[in-house]
Amino acid sequence: MSSTTEQLSATTLLRFATAGSVDDGKSTLVGRLLHDSKSVLEDQLEAVERVSADRGQDAPDLALLTDGLRAEREQGITIDVAYRYFATARRRFILADTPGHVQYTRNMVTGASTADLALVLVDARNGVVEQTRRHAAVAALLRVPHVVLAVNKMDLVGYEEAVFAAIAKEFTEYASELGVPEITAIPISALAGDNVVEPSADMDWYGGPTVLEHLETVPVSHDLAACPARFPVQYVIRPQTAEHPDYRGYAGQIASGVLRVGEAVTVLPSGRTSVIEGIDALGRSVDIAWAPQSVTLRLEDDIDISRGDLIAPAAAAPATTQDVVATVCHVADQPLAVGARVLLKHTTRTVKAIVKEIPSRLTLDDLSQHPEPGQLVANDIGRVVVRTAEPLALDAYADSRRTGSFLLIDPADGTTLAAGMAGESFASRAAEAGAGADDDGWDF
Prior knowledge:
- The protein is α+β, with helices and mostly antiparallel strands and about 450 residues long.
- The protein has helices at about 5-10, 25-35, 40-55, 70-75, 105-110, 130-140, 160-175, 210-215, 425-430, and strands spanning about 10-20, 80-85, 90-95, 115-125, 145-150, 185, 230, 235, 250-255, 260, 265-270, 270-280, 285, 290, 295-300, 310-315, 320-330, 335, 340-345, 350-360, 370, 375, 380-390, 405-410, 415-420.
- Strand 12 and strand 13 (about 285) form a beta hairpin.
């Protein structure tokens, strides 16, 4: 193994998503980040320079490094989530460049759902707008632990400190009301490269980190093993061969926690109990396994277990329910109305359900709750009560992003209608905590 490989293998991984309104410069920022951190291959840069020259541009359009779809390049907008992997000597990164258009907010939900950090861009000339507030609300709702406000295009407002300070104050107050545990504001110019990778010579009044420096040093916790164990069954393995006549294993990925041979477990929703007889991983037997490993469990007792069942420690099994109270981001074009018949997908389990109530819809301007709206339309965030045909073993989303989340699906055509987070919403959490968060923030 080379010294470079050894160095990278020892670094941590940060998943982060960019967000912001149309033309705030997200793709340019990402391109600048990749370019200035020497994470762009030479042929990629040559292709960007060639296209930029054909358009009559004097300098390479770095946004083309992430806008991969033809429609994105032609319209100068981001439509789909663009995932990019890059690394520095200090950390590895998986970046999700998400769209800014209101109609593509659903893609921002996708990109931020697994993010450790959300990088929200604001045009210094426009300040905080409705889509900025929507993206802050989505980041808070999805319990993204760290939020960075990048005030872009500072070169177009004369690098004025007062402009940056006013925007940072407004955004920080808004995000704090949502209960976001950590907010960092950085003044930048993605086009000129100010404070992206290198410090700006035109903003000597700013003494904080550059964007890359903050991304490299922000604390990240991936200690899923500290949570109670959850094992959604994905597949039942029953070879019934001469070599393995009685083998019965339950395959899947450990969503959280640690599982050990000899541990008493409960199978949900049936509630039947057994003991882990063996754990098979990568073709060999092991005594212990932890999230996010993919393994096969063998139990001492023959229990009727199928895809969608959840195996958990008997001492820390979640309660089952058929009445799911949650906050949802509605992502479909068709409205979600009271009485709608839907499918609810939770981990590997999909059940029939009906929307019994929509108690409230969030108003983004002042974070007030609009009571009994009757329906949610595209990009609305609201509270729902869903009755399922079969019991589900959900955790609160505040406790587990993996087993506290679900999707509502149109049974007619399979369209995803809404992304749901079980339990209390960010508004309730912020109110209880005095517009703050736990001392350790949201840690999963």
